[in-house]
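A note from the maintainers: we've had questions about how concatenated examples are separated. There is no special marker in the raw files; a new sequence line simply starts the next protein. For clarity in this README we add a label.
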Amino acid sequence: MQLLAPPSDAEGAQREIFETIGRHAVHGVAEPADKDMNPDFSSLRESARQLRSTHAMVGQMPPVPPTIRGRLGAWIIRKIRRALLWYTPQILQFHRSVTEVIEQQAKAIEEIQRTLGELRRDLTQEIAARNAVGSEIAQLGEAFKSELTARVAEVGALLEQTRAAIEDQIRADAQVRAGERNRVETRLGDSERKIQSLGRGLISQEMRLSVLLEQARKRIDQMSAGQLASLVQEDAHKLDAFYLTFEDQFRGTREDIQERFRVYLPILKSRGIGGAEMPLLDVGCGRGEWLELLRQEGMCASGVDDNRVMLTECRTRKLNVVDGDALEYLRSVDTESLGAVTGFHIIEHLPFPRLIDLFDETVRVLKPGGLALFETPNPRNVLVSTERFYFDPTHRNPLPSPLVRFLAEERGLCRVEVLELHPWPDGARLPEQDGAVAERFNELFYGPVDYAIIGWKA
């Protein structure tokens, strides 16, 4: 009669089964490392077997004793069993489901345990391998440390030897340089003495020439016309060397001058000036910076100057120059034969009648469409008109640009314009945000120091 347990006992049995499954599941996942990764599932298997046995006995008749009481009890049981036909299949189905779940859980747990065991073995092997690698790395580290220590010691010794050798070389070089410096100083001293001697000799030659010229003047009534012309010519060349030295000191280097002259190149090229049909003549060519720049640009140009020292420098650079007075040379040039006549810082040296003659001859020798270009100090700049202009003792007087422009137009040039050039650098100017006074001051004192008159022949 105990086989027909009431529903409450069946629920208790179900609860016990689930608790057993939970205990085994927890032990299978959480405690494999504490035991042997293969726990005993015999109790779980036994519970499943008992559940199957119980399942097989549900609804079966117990043995019937051969007594009236036994037969009566069997009859009652059959009646009860027939009355419970609606409940018995549910019990059987429940038992079957629980049994299958337990068996599936047991298989799953065993598979998990097997996988964990494999992972543990792999992990153990990996740890062992890493320990071996770590040991090997430690050994290599010790070996590397020993080798590095030895190498550092060797390098240190080598550096010490090198340092000592370098110090010895530096001391030796210092001695050599000291000797070389003494020799250079000696040579410089000799050169300076030679330069001073040459300067004194040049001054002496000038003094002797002055004496000779003075004596020649005293005997002027006894000289022929040729001797007088030669005397005048030699007297005019007394300051040739001085003027070259002066320009080297105050005018600037060749490179600086040529860079300033580049502003005129686009003007010449725009009219084809400098070609074979429109040659250029530079009067008062000086050291030849302008002629050299024109040659670099492939233009046809020549120059004329009466300073023999400067002409010598031009000829050493293989420039096309002529020795003579600029105005006299212009008078010898054919009418309408030149494309341009230029003169840089020459008109301020001329007396006014010769300046008129220079413009007249320039207009005469220019071809139609030819260019006249003369650059001169700009007296509108106060510092130029009061100081810089008088650096050159051969200057006569500043020439304001309106005057020279009027002169050029009056002597026959057209489309005459004034091109102001070479302002002071911005660093020398006053900040113009200070007001109109600062702006006006900059215009008068730090404006362009030169200007050029540019005119064309119609």
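[label: protein 2]
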Amino acid sequence: MLDPSGVRRTTRTRLEREDPTPVTSRNASPNASPASRRDRRALERAERTRIRGRARPTQRPAWRSPFALVSLGAVALAAVVIVALAAKPPDLEGDLLIPGTTYPADLVDGESLGRADAPVVIEIWGDFQCPVCGRLAKEQLPRLVADFVLDGRLRIVSRDIDILGLGAQNESEGAAVAARCAGAQGRYWQFHDLLFWNQGGENLGAFRSERLALMADRLGLDRAAWGACRADPAQAAAIRAETAAAAARGIASTPTLSINGQLSVGLPRDYDQLAAVIASIAAAGSGASSAP
């Protein structure tokens, strides 16, 4: 077809409009080379369009890979095992740790330890389920006895209270009653140590009735007398009264120490510092000093 200027104009067919690939390229055999640079470029563009239009395979999220699923399963199983072990109460037989601290009978007076005229008196408010109280009993109490109680400079008074007990079977109160009843047979401090050396988490059964009875047997207590003492409501009432007295003094956490009347909350940061305070008060024969 000629346009008015006399130049032949090619009319594009419907097929050409729908397929932009040059006619030369469409009709050429697959192995034939394009006739011109323009045709080659058109083929390259068509090939790129074809490649981009291919459906790409969907990638599986990393968290759904077999390795990730196995790892997540292992972590979940480990968490279940840890929780189960933490919640399992200690066995009744064969698991009691026996502390080696000894207490001269002439220095023991119920829940007090040391000479009545000692120039320094430390009162310790503690809960037998309190782990920091356990550290105090295991790490510092034996040294205090050896360094200051035996030579008459220090008297220690244990104030057993209940701030961690829960439920009808209150293990904090039950342990405190059991220790007091051991004290009725002159064995309070030995029972005190057995409790702290054999903590097993709070309210998980470490101080359930059967295990307390096992401790009494290990100490050779008169079980009938000890059991009758535990059954006396007055013993639990005494623990509740001690707890109320502590609250009245503003004691809300354990351990709390009172050194000649001055309160110090928590575990002393350093035994040597505590020892220096005791030695200073004892040397001065005074009841006033700074708590550690």
